[in-house]
């Protein structure tokens, strides 16, 4: 499973899914006083978090970042004409030619026939047509002026993702509000390894369910109450990736949950730094294909740390 890092777990425009309604739960205090955080001074943590967030914003707002998305189109079997004309199967932005070409999907393999007079490049070289890969790598990205597009695979579906560094979402970005940095939300947790890596069912905004490998469970305590999170991991050397929801999703943070990375367990411990909890790509664009929190990762807890909602999302 590809995790949106994200490229990766990863429509036609879709509505942002709302978190399922939960019964009233007494919110925890803002600062979990009885958690045992690693010994980090507030000033150091604040500086580290600020530097991390600056890098996160730089990635988000880069020419290849999520804010540059301007389209996502799913391919049907057979021919898919595309261009800016409204009678195309895939309608591209108005700045593009009326007819760009035809993407032919045959049994999961895609070839592109380019309309005469249209100039495309791939990896800096003229591309006159042929097979196109769904690797999502830079070498397979097709360019038409400032527009960039490439084939993606999500389960058994193939689509075309379209990016433009001139996208309004990128040009009009105004920063992401966050909660104040707090050492209380940098929590040392216990890691309970699975006897063997197990498969975790991860729902997505597409209405599908993907499988990811989960190496175990992270257990932490806030105000005397124990909570559990199941992370996913692509291989044993990589960080733990946590897709979680909490009670702030109702009003203050993104409704469909947030993401968090943690270093692999050491001596049976994992550090959860919720100051680095961040919004998924779907919080910024209707053209992303994000994973959603598994049911067991929906915390009955207010995690007042990390990124808040962006705009009206």
UniProtKB/TrEMBL annotation:
<dbReference type="Pfam" id="PF07920">
    <property type="entry name" value="DUF1684"/>
</dbReference>
<feature type="signal peptide">
    <location>
        <begin position="1"/>
        <end position="20"/>
    </location>
</feature>
<dbReference type="InterPro" id="IPR012467">
    <property type="entry name" value="DUF1684"/>
</dbReference>
<protein>
    <submittedName>
        <fullName>DUF1684 domain-containing protein</fullName>
    </submittedName>
</protein>
<keyword id="KW-0732">Signal</keyword>
């Amino acid at each position: 499973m590809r995790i949106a890092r994200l490229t990766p777990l990863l429509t036609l425009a879709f509505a942002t899914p709302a978190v399922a309604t939960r019964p009233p739960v007494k919110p925890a205090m803002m600062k979990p006083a009885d958690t045992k955080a690693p010994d980090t001074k507030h000033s150091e943590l604040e500086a580290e978090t600020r530097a991390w967030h600056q890098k996160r914003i730089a990635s988000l707002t880069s020419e290849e970042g999520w804010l540059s998305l301007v389209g996502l189109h799913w391919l049907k079997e057979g021919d898919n004409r595309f261009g800016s004309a409204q009678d195309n199967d895939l309608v591209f932005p108005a700045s593009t030619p009326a007819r760009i070409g035809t993407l032919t999907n045959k049994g999961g393999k895609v070839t592109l026939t380019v309309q005469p007079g249209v100039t495309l490049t791939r990896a800096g070289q003229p591309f006159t047509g042929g097979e196109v890969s769904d690797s999502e790598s830079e070498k397979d990205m097709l360019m038409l002026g400032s527009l960039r597009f490439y084939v993606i695979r999500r389960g058994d579906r193939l689509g075309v993702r379209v990016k433009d560094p001139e996208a309004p979402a990128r040009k009009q970005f105004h920063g992401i509000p966050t909660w104040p940095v707090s050492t209380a939300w940098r929590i040392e947790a216990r890691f309970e390894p699975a006897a063997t890596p197990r498969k975790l069912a991860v729902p997505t905004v597409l209405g599908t369910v993907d499988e990811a490998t989960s190496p175990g469970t992270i257990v932490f305590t806030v105000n005397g109450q124990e909570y559990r999170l199941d992370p996913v991991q692509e291989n044993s050397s990589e960080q733990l990736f946590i897709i979680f929801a909490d009670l702030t999703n109702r009003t203050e943070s993104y409704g469909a949950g947030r993401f968090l990375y943690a270093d692999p367990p050491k001596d049976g411990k994992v550090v959860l730094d919720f100051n680095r909890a961040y919004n998924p790509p779907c919080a910024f664009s209707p053209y992303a294909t994000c994973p959603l929190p598994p049911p067991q990762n929906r915390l009955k807890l207010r995690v007042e740390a990390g990124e808040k909602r962006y705009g009206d999302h």
